[in-house]
Amino acid sequence: MSGIYIHIPFCKQACHYCDFHFSTNLQTVEALIASLKKELALRANYLQEPVETIYFGGGTPSILSTKSIKEILGTCANHHVIANDAEITIEVNPDDISIEKLKEFKEIGFNRLSIGIQSFDKKILNYLNRAHSDSEALDCLDISRTIGFEALSVDLIYGIPGRTHDQWKNDIKILLSKNPEHISAYCLTIEPGTAFGHWHKKGKLNPVDEEFAAMQFEILLDELTKVGYEQYEVSNFCRDNYYSKHNTAYWQQKPYLGIGPSAHSYNILSRSYNLKNNIKYIHALQNDELFMETEVLSEADKINDYLLTTLRTKWGCNLSQYNLSNKIDMDYVQKLINHNNAKIVDDHLILTKEGLLLADKISSDLFILD
Q1: HEC profile for 243-308?
Q2: Is residue 59 reached through a cis peptide bond, with omega within 30 degrees of 0 on the bond before it?
Q3: DSSP class of residue 194?
Q4: Is residue 193 within 8 Å of residue 20, measured between CB atoms?
Q5: pTM greater than the 0.85 cutoff
Q6: 43-64 b/e with 16+ CB inside 10 Å = b?
Q7: How far apart are CA 273 and CA 21, in angstroms?
Q8: How confident is residue 1, by pLDDT bands cut at 50, 70 and 90?
Q9: 3-state DSSP call for residue 64?
Q10: pLDDT given at position 264
């Protein structure tokens, strides 16, 4: 199994929290699309197995015309073997969506939507500087069902300053009334270089404390569990086994090809990183050159990556993989088990509900050195 990620680095406006690579200058859209197709051609041999997932992320992929997106999908198919039942996802914002556009998305092959809603509260949306309204968020979900999309994933953000637990519960209640198959919920982080980062530096914004954010996550977990959602990764929930196949492949160390400025690729032996500059990316591809850096992975790198990704999931890490049981600190693992932060099932180290809250720290504590 392998996957392709397409990064579309354009947005209508900058959300106050976002530190992903994007531009609000749309003058280079056509040139960049040509460069994406050129990179797909130049890296046609990167993946050595059929492609089972394609994911359009960003930025805001839904800002592009359907014609452009279809061309990119066609280029993927020209240079790779795409499985007949491939999961093909596109991230969309509610303000970009219409019945006509969603029909076109479905017709050209998309079978999963990842919808960036973040909140159903008008004041919160304005605070985050989202381009859509609360009514557009609701309409987008309804329209998606009308068109026939059976796999909807919705993003929410918690830990937002000034938002009470009751307001957070109301967002969850509204979302659950729409019964999406998949929910991704992320705690707001204040990143340098963002509007929120600048406000924080000037003392105009105080992030919520860890206890408050943890309480909102517990509220989310309780509400979703009550109605049958499964937490299969720290921040991801689904019902009826509607896992994100694409993201699950990341967490299970499957190879993937990342196309576009800032996109990452992984083929087990190495990781490559496309640099974050649209103009330089375009110029490089116009000269049939790749705009990237590559890191060959050491044995320690592979093990640490494996721990970091797998321990975030319900499947945990296989202690037989890389002979882990003889390489990581098993005394530390026993302490995790004694404190109900982990368990071992069929030779897999799996974090408990309590342990998942500490997943990144536990992973780093288990890291090995070269």
Answers
A1: CCHHHHHHHCCCCEEEECCCCEEECCCEEEEECCCHHHHHHHHHCCCCCEEEEECCHHHHHHHHHH
A2: yes
A3: S
A4: no
A5: yes
A6: beebbeeebbbbbbbbbbbbbb
A7: 13
A8: confident
A9: coil
A10: 97
Flag whether pLDDT at 154 surpasses 90.
Answer: yes
Contact indicator for 61, 20 with CB cutoff of 8 Å: no
Q: Give whole-number Cα distances, 64 to 7, 104, 133, 138, 310, in Å.
A: 12, 12, 20, 22, 34
Structure tokens at 310: 């797998």
DSSP codes joined into one string, 297-342: PPHHHHHHHHHHHHTTBTT-EETTGGGGGGTS-HHHHHHHHHTTSE
| pLDDT per position as a tens digit, 38-77 | 999 999 999 989 999 999 999 999 999 999 999 999 999 9
**How far is the C-alpha of 303 from the C-alpha of 327, rounded, in Å?**
9
Residue 260 contacts by C-beta under 8 Å, 6 or more apart in sequence?
A: 6, 7, 8, 9, 32, 36, 39, 274, 281
The residues with which 233 forms a beta bridge, in sequence order, are 236, 313
Amino acid letter for position 263: A
Task: Identify residue 171 by its one-letter amino acid code.
Answer: D
SS3 165: helix
